[in-house]
């Protein structure tokens, strides 16, 4: 646009520099939150909010080892989505039957394949978007909307562990006055660290296990215990509907019966794909997942309260991955990866935080220079004159 040539090294250096400034600002806010010194940046208290967290994998390399990839490692990047919501509450369950998208074999198989596939490749997931759900079978067009609408989304991302990531999420929530909202939800998958963060920083939020992950476990276990594809699909629909309607206990009872018939899984981790597909292991994993998260699967109550039952962070992780993940990208540990995650999170946040950051950044053309700077410039001008 300007005809000015900018080298790759200059872009890399500036991105690294700005990323480090964003890291420093983020960490400072986490400290202020812990000391109860962090002020909200908005005057409006949201009506309904959701906090979500998920993890992915990015490829990294050792720092200071020269050109090329040295000591390649996959590292987990944690991503949090904090969104304000709007939508009504209901006296009864507004959607007692699962949407058609969960009863479409092609979509469900693709969903399961993508959510349980190997990490590291860029493949935008075809997830079920509850913000515009398909009309369930038998429901007329124009039926009352039951799922909440997302308003403003912000993002927190880091390679730090959950102990450090929790305060980052809490600081972002406090700045946006999430703790004052009348309706609050925390949605995540069954990873233990997610619920450690919930207990430590969001205990007053309604804990909800992402329904999409429950679908994956139910689908896999139904296929494992059925003699053919048709009966497996029928079993999946029955178990999926039971989970959707909050009858997780019934599914667990049937899985217990299947485990008794099949026998207990072999000891030790599965080493091959064939061992991972062992019906005994598949059923045991589903029993563990549903059993551990049973109290977070009261989906009819969440829908009545106008809260989401599926995670928005899945699509956000895909947007993060589109920038940082591929078979050819290896980010330098730890600074290079952490810097680019801060930039990507700022770009994907819908509160104009990156333009505001540049407007407030020292040296910005939008900021007035201090008096000392003006005096030194004046003296320099006189000397030159």
TrEMBL record:
Q: Where is this region: Disordered?
A: 116-146
Q: What protein is this chain from?
A: LysR family transcriptional regulator
Organism this protein belongs to: Gemmata obscuriglobus
């Amino acid at each position: 646009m300007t005809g000015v040539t900018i080298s790759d090294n200059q872009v890399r250096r500036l991105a690294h520099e700005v990323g480090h400034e964003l890291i420093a600002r983020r960490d400072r806010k986490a400290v202020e939150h812990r000391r109860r010194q962090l002020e909200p940046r908005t005057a409006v208290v949201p009506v309904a909010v959701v906090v979500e967290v998920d993890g992915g994998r990015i490829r990294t390399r050792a720092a200071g080892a020269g050109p090329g990839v040295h000591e390649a490692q996959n590292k987990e990047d944690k991503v949090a989505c904090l969104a304000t919501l709007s939508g009504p509450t209901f006296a009864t369950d507004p959607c007692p039957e699962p949407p058609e998208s969960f009863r479409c074999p092609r979509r469900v198989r693709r969903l399961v394949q993508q959510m349980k596939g190997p990490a590291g490749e860029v493949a935008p997931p075809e997830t079920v978007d509850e913000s515009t759900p398909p009309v369930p079978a038998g429901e007329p067009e124009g039926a009352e909307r039951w799922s909440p609408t997302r308003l403003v989304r912000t993002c927190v991302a880091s390679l730090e562990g959950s102990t450090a990531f929790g305060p980052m999420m809490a600081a972002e929530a406090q700045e946006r006055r999430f703790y004052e909202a009348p309706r609050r939800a925390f949605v995540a998958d069954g990873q233990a660290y997610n619920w450690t963060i919930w207990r430590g920083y969001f205990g007053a939020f309604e804990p909800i296990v992402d329904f999409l992950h429950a679908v994956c476990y139910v689908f896999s276990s139904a296929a494992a215990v059925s003699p053919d594809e048709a009966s497996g699909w029928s079993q999946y629909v029955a178990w999926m509907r039971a989970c959707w309607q909050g009858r997780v206990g019934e599914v667990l009872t049937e899985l217990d019966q299947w485990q008794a018939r099949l026998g207990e899984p072999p000891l030790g981790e599965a080493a091959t794909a064939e061992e991972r597909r062992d019906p005994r292991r598949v059923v045991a994993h589903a029993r563990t997942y549903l059993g551990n998260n049973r109290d977070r699967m009261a989906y009819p109550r969440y829908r009545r309260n106008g809260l989401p039952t599926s995670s928005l962070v899945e699509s956000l992780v895909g947007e993060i991955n589109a920038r940082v993940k591929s078979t050819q990208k290896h980010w330098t540990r730890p600074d290079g990866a952490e810097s680019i995650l801060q930039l990507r999170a700022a770009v994907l946040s819908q509160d104009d935080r990156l333009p505001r950051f540049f407007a407030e950044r020292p040296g910005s053309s939008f900021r007035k220079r201090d008096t000392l700077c003006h005096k030194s410039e004046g003296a320099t001008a006189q000397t030159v004159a």
